[in-house]
Structure formats: structure tokens, C-alpha cells
Write a structure and sequence with these properties.
By secondary structure, this protein is α/β, with parallel strands linked by helices. The chain contains 11 helices and 12 strands. The structure holds 3-isopropylmalic acid and manganese (II) ion.
């Protein structure tokens, strides 16, 4: 019996999570695994009503679950940064979800802005470090408010933090067993402390994986190749900030925010799965947002729980819906409503 914590969150989060839960229920009946969910109201609305995003014991409570299913974070009525830091980043850091795993896969029938590339060309995975780098929030203002003001933002990279991430990436590349190629995406030519350490650790760990081909690309060049030759990539490993940026680019080439999902993984603890598109305030409550990203996030959760058969069924069903039904993956242009897309995925299981 899996215990799943569900945090629908802000904006369109609840709508897309409903569809994910609909598919989860259907696939559990077909394959026979058992689970129970607990709905948690963490997020913007709770913050506006009570001044607290989540209760004080939230982290210790969440540790009792097998997985967390998250909808969206971001409320236009709350100052930017509060919910991002107080909910999403807090969970990623406090639950030591040190990997952010983001598959970039163009499903059949999905439009990509890259001319002449099809679904056989776009299929790679970004392993983003999720607990360090510029996201640690260290820094200071010097002479704040004056003409001489300086703002310092620290990127903290620890050998241990890099090593566990890089090691995960090598293991993942091996297990994925596609092209067996791992690319380190960095900026060794300018960021000569942080990326020097990354490169050294990467090369050290690489020695233990002789069957994996390694490669290096600067982050700017990575952006270029992701558009020009996405078929060159199998798995990319990178730091928190670069990972944030290149995975939005990745989301676009795989068909947009309507389909892009991610997992925040603690390989020895509680992992959290989310559509990466955000709360989309302007579409909230309209039944037009695309729930496929949330359904894909649920599929990643099933994989992580070891329910490979169920995960495979969900993915094939999503592919059928994109290939045979949806006109577009964009909100309001799918040719179906949010709930209808959830129904279609359920029917095709
Ligand atoms: C993401 C998001 C977050 C990030 C924001 C909401 C803090 O953009 O998951 O990529 O920067 O990591
Ligand atoms: Mn992002």
C-alpha cells in the first residue's frame, strides 16, 4: 500500500492533479497495486488566509510518505519568491531531493518548433543538481540602496553534492541503456572554481563507467545543440541554475509546458513529482489547461515506486492521446477540455 501525499497547490495545479489522480486510480485497478492519498492544502491560498504556507511539522510528516505528487506553485496575489522558496525549494532542500530529473521526449503527433526534427530525434534526459549551486540562497548586499551598491549571490558546489549527482547520472545513463552517453553541461571557461570541481569529479567518476561515453559542452553551446542537433544527447548532467534554464528549452522542443514533467528525487528518501509548467493563473478554473504534464509526472512517480508495468501503460496511453487525438498541446487549443483529456488517457490505458 503506497502512501502518496498530494499537494495540488496554486492556480491550475488542482485541475491537472485531479486528472493525474483519475488516471492513477484507473491504472491501479488494471494492474492491481494499492495506494492511498492524503490531500494537503499547502500553497498560496493557505498562506493568504493563515500567514503560513504549511504547518511547522510538514517536513517530518512528509517523510512518512512513499512519494509526493505536486501540482503547481505560484499565486499572483503573493509576492514572487515567497511560495517558490517557502514551498517548492523548501521541500526540495529539506527532503534532500538532490536530483531533478527531466525527460525531454517528443511524443508522436506533437508539434515541435524545430523544423525537420521528429520524435526519433528528441529523446534525452536532463539530470539537474537540485540542492546546491546558486539556489542555496547565500549572498549579501553591500551598501544597499546607494550608488556603490553591490549584490553578491553565491553558487555553492560541494564535492559530495556534485559526486552524488554525477554518480546518479552515470547510473541512470547505464540503466536507460540507450546511447550510453553522458554529457556534462557547464561553463568551465568562465566559472573556473565551481566548474573546475564539477569537471574533476565528473572525470573521476567516469573512470568507473568504462561503457559510458562521456562528453562536455558549455551551457551556451548546449542550448545551441539542443536546437540544432537534439539527437546528439542521451543524458545531460548539470548544476541547478543551468538545469533550470536548459530544461525550459527542453520543454519547448518536446511540445511545450503542457507535456513537460519532472521528478525531484531523493534516491534514499521521499521523492516529489510535478508538471514543470507552473500555476498558469490566467487559465485557472477554465477547464482548458493541458493535464498531460501532470499525468506524465504521475507516470514518473509510478516508475520511481517500481510500478513499471503501470508506468508503461500510462506512457503508451499518453502517446496515443497525443498521436491520435489532441490538435495541439496548448491550453485552450487541444480540441478537448482538461477533464476530457484525462478521460481519454484513462480510456486508452
Ligand atoms: C522549476 C521552477 C523553479 C526553479 C522555480 C519555481 C523556483 O522554475 O522547477 O524549474 O527555478 O527550480
Ligand atoms: Mn524552471
Amino acid at each position: 500500500m503506497y502512501k502518496i501525499a498530494v499537494i495540488p497547490g496554486d492556480g491550475t495545479g488542482p485541475e491537472v492533479i485531479n486528472e493525474g489522480l483519475k488516471v492513477l486510480e484507473a491504472v491501479s485497478k488494471k494492474t492491481g497495486f494499492k495506494y492511498k492519498t492524503r490531500m494537503l492544502d499547502y500553497g498560496g491560498e493557505r498562506y493568504r488566509k493563515t500567514g503560513k504556507i504549511m504547518p511547522d511539522n510538514a517536513i517530518s510528516e512528509l517523510k512518512k510518505f512513499d512519494a509526493i505528487y505536486l501540482g503547481a506553485v505560484g499565486d499572483p496575489k503573493v509576492k514572487p519568491g515567497i511560495l517558490e522558496k517557502g514551498l517548492l525549494l523548501k521541500l526540495r532542500f529539506d527532503l534532500k531531493q538532490y536530483i531533478n530529473l527531466r525527460p525531454v521526449k517528443l511524443y508522436p503527433g506533437v508539434w515541435t518548433p524545430i523544423k525537420d526534427k521528429g520524435h526519433e530525434d528528441i529523446d534525452f534526459v536532463v539530470v539537474r543538481e537540485n540542492n546546491e549551486g546558486l539556489y542555496v540562497g547565500e549572498g549579501e548586499f553591500i551598501k544597499k540602496g546607494t550608488k556603490e551598491e553591490v549584490a553578491i549571490q553565491v553558487s555553492r558546489n560541494t564535492r559530495k553534492g556534485i559526486e552524488r549527482c554525477v554518480r546518479f547520472a552515470f547510473e541512470y545513463t547505464k540503466k536507460r541503456n540507450k546511447r550510453k552517453k553522458l554529457t556534462l553541461c557547464g561553463k568551465t571557461n568562465v566559472l573556473t572554481y565551481g566548474w573546475d570541481l564539477w569537471e574533476r569529479v565528473f572525470n573521476e567518476v567516469a573512470k568507473e563507467y568504462e561503457d559510458i561515453t562521456t562528453d562536455y559542452a558549455h551551457v551556451d553551446a548546449t542550448c545551441m545543440w539542443m536546437v540544432k542537433n537534439p539527437e546528439w544527447f542521451d543524458v545531460i548532467v548539470t548544476d541547478n541554475m543551468f538545469g533550470d534554464i536548459i530544461t525550459d528549452l527542453g520543454a519547448m522542443i518536446q511540445g511545450g509546458m503542457g507535456i513537460a514533467a519532472g521528478g525531484n528525487l531523493n534516491p534514499k528518501g521521499v521523492s516529489m513529482f510535478e508538471p514543470i509548467g507552473g500555476s498558469a493563473p490566467k487559465y485557472t478554473g477554465k477547464n482548458v489547461i493541458n493535464p498531460l504534464a501532470a499525468i506524465s509526472a504521475m507516470q514518473m512517480m509510478l516508475e520511481c515506486l517500481g510500478e513499471d508495468k503501470a508506468a508503461g501503460m500510462v506512457e503508451r496511453s499518453i502517446m496515443k492521446v497525443t498521436g491520435e487525438k489532441l490538435k495541439s498541446l496548448s491550453a485552450g487549443k487541444m480540441g478537448y477540455s482538461t477533464t476530457e483529456v484525462g478521460d481519454l488517457v484513462t480510456e486508452f490505458l
